[in-house]
Amino acid sequence: MKGIVLWISGAALAFFFTAGAFLLLANLASAPSDKSLTPDSSSGGSRPALDLSLDEGQLASLSPLPNQSLDLTVNNEGSRQLSDVNVTLGVSSENTSLPDSLYYRQTVEKLPPGEAATVHFEFDLSTLGQPVARPTAAVPEPSRKILEIRATTPEGISAVRTAILPP
Amino acid sequence: MLSRTTALLIAAAFATVGCAHPHEEVSIAPLAPAASKVDPGLGPGTRALSSGPGYKGSPSWSPEGDRIAFTIDGYVVDKPAGSEDLRRWTTRDFVAEDTEWISDDTLTMLGAAPGSKTPSEETSSSVYRARAGKNSLGLEKVANGVLAMTPDREGLICALENRAYESGLMLTDDSGEVYRLYTTPIQGHVTALSPSPDGDQVVLAVRPPGDLETSELRVFDLRKGKGLEITRLHGNQEILGTPQWTEQGIYFVAGKKNTPMDADGSEPLYFLYRVPAEGGAPEPAPGVGEDFVAASIRVSPDGEQLAVIGRLNPQAPPNLYVLDLVAKDLKAVTTNEDMEIKTGPDDLAWSPGGRSVAIVARGTPSTEPEVRAEPADRLLRDFYNLYEVPVGGTPQ
């Protein structure tokens, strides 16, 4: 009889101990993952931010000819001055079977916080894909031109805009 | 007795510690880039399988269902279904019309290598094969003058152009080696073909001699080497794409082609029909509704369902539908309102397990310049891209 009582009390003790341990571990395990999903506001608040603006009217006036020009605005929306902001313009075709894209580059040397700089590009939209831009068996519709603009700083801050021009 | 109690407590403690998760296992693993891109334009559960520019088409799942091959601007690529690691199979100047896996490491392509076509060969292409792991851009030509191809249980069935108005058939094994060439001529020009459920026969869409349209369906017995016409359309009607042979009959899309007289810019309307495999007059496919406009069809691997790209009526947006062939029940599996879904005959593909269908779609192109805040190679809706649409469950 004494043995049975001891077994029952031992089993009950083990049950409560195990349940308590599970509860404790469940709380411990879930806390860090919840935290990791929350954006880190302390680092994001002071991080400099770049933005790019394109003039859609000017984009609409582009044609598949040489000597095209585009002005775009680079905005420093952060709280620190940015230096040596590289702005690249990549011109390519929607048709990926065409050879290499064309690239143009400009640099903004200093961009104080809250200020904007205008970057001017002159580029050629006449040659890229011209011989095969017309519909073919593989691509039965005229291909569009793609302008991809990237602004990057040496610290790795970047912004990107892609403009798709109708044929 | 005390030692028994102590042992019990120690065992409970071990069990507790053993069930606890190490800290790093509770973090959420990042999704593969392609898997995370869900386009809301086609409905819940849809997964983007590609992104960026390029005129894409002819999706084909590998037999294991872990990779998908497709064409971009004519050349051929494949990639794992869950990542963006694109592998190119042909040079960029190759022009492929269709791609089909015939084994897990062998891909066949119907098309033309640069400079391979003479003016007299303009109507037909060649079949090439390539094996994974070898020189990926080195293609082996399997046959010239190929009009159409379809995979079957053992490899590939190809329709060949014998003469101007005469076709023939050829079989390859799963490595692309030709093992049977039929001498029985087929009168006319084969435009598409697909195997019967048991694989012993094949249904052919044929443009008969002297006819401007693909207007005839023939079945060809691969064991006996004999063919038989089962139906023929009249009155400027044409068969569109590849007929699909099921236990419930042969389904095909057909309609009246626009003529210069009534070419008012409106899209010609094609409808889904069914004809018995033994032959007879085609009837509207049961279960789809009389206003349903069909474009392309593909039978599921188990033969019980038919994937159909079409519209509920001529004014409705295109969607992917699945027709239960036994219950005669049509169900929309996309909820598209403003996307263009490609309607080419090879622009849809069932996954090997039959749980999803790959389609090709894009947003309606604008006539004005559009600006996006993403790099071009990450854009989805602006270009034709591949989407995996779950059919009655989560895609594999």
Topology:
The complex is a heterodimer of chains A (167) and B (396).
Chain A: H1 2-36, H2 41-46, E1 50-54, H3 56-60, E2 68-76, E3 82-93, E4 102-111, E5 116-123, E6 145-152, E7 158-165
Chain B: H1 2-19, H2 33-36, E1 47-48, E2 56-61, E3 67-72, E4 75-80, E5 87-88, E6 95-103, E7 106-112, E8 125-131, E9 140-151, E10 156-163, E11 166-172, E12 178-181, E13 186-187, E14 189-195, E15 201-207, E16 216-221, E17 226-232, E18 237-246, E19 249-256, E20 270-275, E21 283-284, E22 293-299, E23 305-311, E24 319-324, E25 329-332, E26 339-341, E27 348-350, E28 356-363, E29 370-372, E30 385-390
Antiparallel strand pairs in B: 1-30, 2-3, 3-4, 4-5, 6-7, 7-8, 8-9, 9-10, 10-11, 11-12, 11-13, 14-15, 15-16, 16-17, 18-19, 19-20, 20-21, 22-23, 23-24, 24-25, 26-28, 27-28, 28-30
Output the keywords.
heterodimer; A: 167 residues; alpha+beta; four-stranded antiparallel beta sheet; three-stranded antiparallel beta sheet; 3 helices; 7 strands; 28% helix; elongated; B: 396 residues; mainly beta; eight-stranded antiparallel beta sheet; five-stranded antiparallel beta sheet; 30 strands; 6% helix; 45% strand
Description of the molecule:
The complex is a heterodimer of chains A (167) and B (396). Helix content of chain A is 28%, strand content 36%. Chain A is built from three helices and seven strands. In chain A, the strands form two sheets. Chain A has a four-stranded antiparallel beta sheet, with no helix packed on it. The longest helix of chain A has 35 residues, at 2-36. Chain A is elongated. The N and C termini of chain A lie far apart (94 Å). Residues 29-46 of chain A have low confidence and may be disordered. With 396 residues, chain B is mainly beta. Chain B has two helices and 30 strands. In chain B, strand 24 (319-324) and strand 25 form a beta hairpin. The relative contact order of chain B is 0.12. At the A-B interface, helix 1, helix 3, strand 6 and strand 7 of A face helix 1, strand 6 and strand 29 of B. Strand 7 (158-165) of chain A pairs antiparallel with strand 29 (370-372) of chain B.
